Amino acid sequence: MAELVGDWGGGEIWRITSGSFPSNSYICLNRAAGGALLIDGGLDPEAIDAVVNKLGVIPSLVCCTHGHFDHAGSAEYFQSKYGSSVFMHKADVKTYKMSNFLLMAFGFSERIKFASITQASDEERIYMSGFDITFIPTPGHTPGSCFLSIGNAFFTGDTLYAQGVGLSDLPGEKPELLKKSILSIWDTLTSNRWIFPGHGKAIEGDRLKRENVDLLRFLGLIT
């Protein structure tokens, strides 16, 4: 299912939720430059590609908030078909390479092919196709989890949700580090900042800080 969910300040944001392990993939458009960016290609590349074709764009780059299969599983598909550059934080490439093991452990029949990854560093900025993307390190859910900052939008993967906390008991997860990461960006979550998570709905930063009670408890901000 595809839905227009917002604007990052320079173009539309489309959300696609699909796959046997549903997660959010996002296509960001740049009105001025005519560029397209895919964030977190999940396990259903054909569903994402159908939206790409409907919009009449070519995703010149794919950026992953982290390396789990439900957020990076389609990266190789788009790299092979469109020549897309694929970016991921360097600390999560090992997590990405574990994807087929985790799929097997979860009992899924899917297996993914691996893209050639351009490894990003902390706070690295990427300028491509009219986009200015910053990899903000938020380790905890995985070692290399990042917020992707684009205009007025944060794409937060499994680090931050509108409701609940991104804890999964998967290998490499560190709850105390996740807490530290979220607190480090807490003051940037304002009414002007939209949060686009890897699962669930988008929400303004200030609303998230008021309404996500489970997160507030996890962070020790309420009892």
From TrEMBL:
Range of residues in the leader sequence: none
Metallo-beta-lactamase domain residues: 22-199
Keywords from the UniProt entry: Hydrolase, Metal-binding, Zinc
Alphabetical list of InterPro entries matching this protein: MBL_Glyoxalase_II, Metallo-B-lactamas, RibonucZ/Hydroxyglut_hydro
A Pfam match: Lactamase_B
Cofactor: Zn(2+)
GO MF: hydrolase activity; metal ion binding
CDD domains: metallo-hydrolase-like_MBL-fold (cd06262)
Lineage top rank: taxon: Bacteria
PANTHER family noted in UniProt: HYDROXYACYLGLUTATHIONE HYDROLASE GLOC
Protein name: Metallo-beta-lactamase domain-containing protein
